[in-house]
Amino acid sequence: MFVTSFLAAGWLMQGIVATPLPFTERDALIERPSFEFHRRDPVTKRDATPLETSSHILPIQGTSIQAQGSSALQRFVRAASNVTTPLISAERGGGYAIQIDFGGTTFEVVFDTGSSDLWLAETGVQCVNANGRSVTVAQCGFGPLADSTFEGGSIANENFNISYGDGEFLIGTLGHEDVSIAGITVPNQEVALVNEAYWVGDNVTSGLMGFAFPSLTSAFPGINPALDNPNNTVPYTNWIFNAIEQGLIDPMFSLAIERGTNGGGGQLALGGLPTIPFDQTFTSTPLQIVDLTDDANAAQNFSFYTIVPDGFLLSGQQQTYRGYRNVSESPATNYDAIVDSGTTLMYLPNNIAQAVNALFDPPSVYIEEEGVFENYCDATPPTFAIRINGTDFYINSAEMLLTGAGGQDTYTGGCITGVQPGFGGPYILGDTFLKNVVAVYDIGASEMRFAPHENH
């Protein structure tokens, strides 16, 4: 049995044994049955939206919010694993924030392509901890709080109720408010004000803005959240889709995440491309429907931004894992992947995650108690690429191993790797993928487009 020396002392003192999982041990991580997904051709398929630089550019900024709490997708990853402690304990500093105008007041909110609602914490919000006990508002870590009224009026007999990764949840009321982003105003947008929360915030962001499809919104009939049924939501159109339907922007947005020593940043472009320099050679791939939630509406309509990669390329100093160099041996139908800005890491099929981590120099170690692969913070990552519609998108070594305060496990001293096991799905291409591309979310054409972004 192999235990890396830089972690051995801490683990052995705690009675923890860490065993490496070489890629030949396919049964080392238990594969769960994959979530069902299926393709659907839209009734009316639009041509690809012309790509022009947007006049509505919004800067995004890295935050210290816990990334596992910034995307609703994380609760599915956690549910599919057998980890009882926080699934990604080292996923700190993984969120990205944007500024919005909410009824004439500016707030910073987490930007998330893996959920659909816009919510802000309101004045008087009641906070609880992980055990459900009341705590001070400061312990929720919200930024400035919003007034507890809606300028456009509240919505009677409905409630807002959403859960995120690691158990965070938010409960509140719904109403209408004028909301502006990058000079685009959607009047009387349906929004939520949160009056009860378990949240681990950054003391800067006041809420969250979701850009996923409307089928994932979290409005429920009635005023008692305890009676909410996930298969009985009250659909509404969220901000990005209202902006498109009202003709305020072309039916797309694009995202370019930049690296940086202070959490990074980048641009969110509404209706067009960002202004940052990049190679505008795009590869397109159709969006898929993924049957992931208990909501029948989401199961029959687009929900997350889901694609099917062709396969994966992988090689390292020690050897080449040839099973995934030939993409025909990696059936695309097995590896649906959700592109999500609210998730820091890539979560891939277990055997692929093992193969990637085995080719680090030295090989990564799987920390079963935390459900992650870790390594020395100066380890050498393998060369890894994701093939999408025939184009290989290589992952920069900076995203293969997360060093510094944002990626170092304070308990073990190791650094978390950028590719982790997805435990049967859903598989996610998070920020460690998105930092290597400019991603175009072409809602009108029901497709995504990617261009390489070296981003050094």
From TrEMBL:
<dbReference type="InterPro" id="IPR021109">
    <property type="entry name" value="Peptidase_aspartic_dom_sf"/>
</dbReference>
<keyword id="KW-0645">Protease</keyword>
<keyword id="KW-0732">Signal</keyword>
<dbReference type="InterPro" id="IPR001969">
    <property type="entry name" value="Aspartic_peptidase_AS"/>
</dbReference>
<comment type="similarity">
    <text>Belongs to the peptidase A1 family.</text>
</comment>
<dbReference type="GO" id="GO:0004190">
    <property type="term" value="F:aspartic-type endopeptidase activity"/>
</dbReference>
<keyword id="KW-0378">Hydrolase</keyword>
<keyword id="KW-1015">Disulfide bond</keyword>
<dbReference type="Pfam" id="PF00026">
    <property type="entry name" value="Asp"/>
</dbReference>
<protein>
    <recommendedName>
        <fullName>Peptidase A1 domain-containing protein</fullName>
    </recommendedName>
</protein>
<dbReference type="GO" id="GO:0006508">
    <property type="term" value="P:proteolysis"/>
</dbReference>
<feature type="domain" description="Peptidase A1">
    <location>
        <begin position="96"/>
        <end position="451"/>
    </location>
</feature>
<dbReference type="InterPro" id="IPR001461">
    <property type="entry name" value="Aspartic_peptidase_A1"/>
</dbReference>
<dbReference type="InterPro" id="IPR033121">
    <property type="entry name" value="PEPTIDASE_A1"/>
</dbReference>
<dbReference type="GO" id="GO:0000324">
    <property type="term" value="C:fungal-type vacuole"/>
</dbReference>
<feature type="disulfide bond">
    <location>
        <begin position="377"/>
        <end position="415"/>
    </location>
</feature>
<feature type="signal peptide">
    <location>
        <begin position="1"/>
        <end position="18"/>
    </location>
</feature>
<keyword id="KW-0064">Aspartyl protease</keyword>
<dbReference type="InterPro" id="IPR034164">
    <property type="entry name" value="Pepsin-like_dom"/>
</dbReference>
<feature type="active site">
    <location>
        <position position="112"/>
    </location>
</feature>
<feature type="active site">
    <location>
        <position position="340"/>
    </location>
</feature>
